[in-house]
Amino acid sequence: MVERNFGSLAAESFDLSISNSSCKADDACFVLSSGEGAKRVSINASSMSELTYGIGYYTRFHCGLTVG
Q1: Longest distance between any two alpha carbons in the chain, whole Å
Q2: pLDDT digits (tens, 9 = 90+) for 7-32
């Protein structure tokens, strides 16, 4: 999915995963992480909806890109 929308080179820069390990109890959340100068962005979310939101958040607030 990332490859289709962003291209194969960009797809190699993302680690996307779904798990509840980063969330408190039954909360819905996403965690965005990347080290300074890192070439990979990790987004861990509690559900597919939260993962999609996390990708949108990253592209809007870190890349200046809006998806409509």
Answers
A1: 36
A2: 777 778 888 889 877 677 667 788 88
